[in-house]
Amino acid sequence: MLALLCVGGGITGYVLYERAATPDRSAPDVVVVSYLQATFVARDDNRAKLFTCTGLLPSVDEFRNQMVSRERQLDAVFSINVEDVRVTMNGESSAAVRAVVRRSATIDGVQQSLADAWRFEVVDQKEGWRVCSGERLQ
């Protein structure tokens, strides 16, 4: 009886761990928001790569580097929010996702905010949706 209880506990622990460790790539908007949070909020390239087709996206990576440089110049830390996420399906396994990335900070005692619109191309692969490209819109 004790052996069965231990095996059952081990299996339950494994299932719960897998659910917590596996990134959610269930929908185009979910994968884009998760990617942006990993890139801009957590600043974790390894986590961000879990949501992309082939690794880091140069345009997004460059934007993050500019943002980090600006934070150093202003001696401030930006708070990042992903807003107004909209999905346009281009078929069963392809979609375009538009999102606004808002950077906010208090600089010299004044709350300031900038918003940038982005467009991402995502595809549904075997393990779920992945972000394949991203561009900042003018």
Architecture overview:
- The longest helix is centred in the N-terminal third of the chain and has 20 residues, at 2-21.
- 20% of the residues are buried.
- A hairpin with a 2-residue loop joins strand 2 (94-107) and strand 3 (110-125).
- Helix content is 41%, strand content 36%.
- It is an alpha+beta fold.
- The chain has four helices and four strands.
- A four-stranded antiparallel β-sheet has the order 1-2-3-4, with helices on one face.
Question: What structural category do the secondary elements indicate?
Answer: alpha+beta
Strand order in the sheet with the most strands: 1-2-3-4
**How helix-rich are the residues, as a percent range?**
40-55%
**From N to C, what is the helix and strand string?**
HHHHEEEE
Q: What percent of residues are in strands? A: 35-45%
Radius of gyration: 19 Å
Low-confidence stretches: 13-20
Question: What profile does the largest beta sheet have?
Answer: 4 strands, antiparallel
State the end-to-end distance: 65 Å
| Mean pLDDT score | 87
- Overall shape: globular
Helical stretch count? 4
Secondary structure: number of strands: 4
